[in-house]
Design brief:
By secondary structure, the chain is of the alpha/beta class. It contains 10 helices and 7 strands. A 7-stranded mixed β-sheet has the order 3-2-1-4-6-5-7, sandwiched between helices. The site of magnesium ion (MG) has 5 residues, from loops. Magnesium ion binds next to loops.
């Protein structure tokens, strides 16, 4: 079996690919171990296809999948994981924002026995304050609502042991955010910190719309929170309405005047809203259960078996 697979999604990366290849191959060659480099051309409209075909022609360790159209980076990463045959798989961006020397540090960690090595961005050069702020909020929000240990400041630049790749490939949901799935599967994880440089060429493909889509794909498969929230809100409104009723009854019995008949409308509406929200939330819980059945994730993942017959 091959030792390492490097998987690289590429969308309109004609200016970066040669630089990427020239930066990564000498470092990997230096390891004196077998490796493959899988490029996934995600429906590029520039010369990405021709450049990759050229690289594959002169170096048979370069493998290329051309998508029929643009399916997105997450789909490209999934394809890379599926096609890889290395014992360790490293996902890297084509624009050299994931420094190749950090990949070597990841390999060191893998050799120490870690199954997942995350690249953690200590500093992000060339990114707008808006992108940094939304990323900051999103990771903290995800951790809170999914209850998963999804590390902050970590993207898709990672090393995966083969057993992690197999675990991820066993998750069949359609909408997927790989880094959220990684958090879900568990395993022994560690980090390598790095300063994220600017792109070598071209510009980011992530518009606000694409970022929102990506954020959704992380949230919905991994939490019921959005569906059960109405119940919590309903219970809170119901509780406040009952307190309001009791207060009004006490006030009325003590002969204090407080706004007449119309005042009673507030807790009455409150109770009605609470009942509706709780009913909606219960129906949503049922939907959540159906979603989990459809999602059909494994019920558990074994990381190691000891003393079982092969
Ligand atoms: N990418 C892709 N399909 C897309 C968008 C991006 O395969 O629809 C690739 C892109 O070529 C790059 C990586 O995903 O190798 C990260 O994209 P980008 O650099 O645009 O994202 P950023 O670093 O700005 O978050
Ligand atoms: Mg980039």
């Amino acid at each position: 079996m091959l030792k390492y697979s490097i998987i690289v999604p590429a969308y309109n990366e004609e200016k970066s690919l040669d630089l990427f290849y020239k930066a990564v191959t000498p470092l990997m060659d230096g390891l004196n171990e077998e490796y493959e480099m899988i490029f996934i051309n995600d429906g590029s409209r520039d010369a990405t296809k021709e450049i990759l075909d050229g690289l594959a022609q002169k170096d048979n360790r370069v493998k290329v999948c051309h998508f029929s159209r643009n399916f997105g980076q997450q789909a490209a990463l999934l394809c890379g994981l599926k096609e890889s045959s290395g014992q360790a798989v490293i996902a890297m961006d084509a624009d050299l924002q994931d420094p190749p020397e950090v990949a070597l540090q990841m390999i060191e960690k893998w050799k120490e026995g870690f199954d997942i090595v995350h690249g953690r961005r200590k500093k992000r050069n060339g990114e707008t304050a808006f992108k940094k702020a939304t990323a900051y909020v999103y990771y903290r929000f995800m951790r809170k609502i999914t209850k998963m240990d999804m590390p902050a400041d970590v993207g898709d630049f990672k090393l995966y042991d083969r057993k992690v790749v197999n675990a991820i490939l066993s998750l069949s949901e359609h909408d997927r955010l790989l880094r959220a799935q990684v958090a879900w599967v568990g395993f022994k994880q560690t980090f390598v910190d790095f300063e994220r440089p600017e792109r070598v060429a071209g510009k980011t493909h992530y518009t606000l719309k694409k970022m929102i889509k990506l954020a959704e794909s992380g949230v919905f498969p991994n939490t019921d929170y959005t569906l059960t929230f109405p119940i919590k809100l309903g219970v809170l409104i119901g509780f406040l309405s009952v307190v309001c009723f009791i207060t009004f009854i006490v006030l009325a019995c003590s002969g204090v005047s407080f706004g007449g008949l119309t005042a009673w409308l507030f807790p009455t509406i409150g109770v009605a809203v609470a009942i509706l929200l709780v009913c909606q939330g219960l129906a949503n819980m049922h939907t959540a259960m159906i979603y989990r059945e459809v999602q059909n994730r494994p019920i558990y993942i074994v990381s190691e078996k000891i003393n079982f017959d092969k």
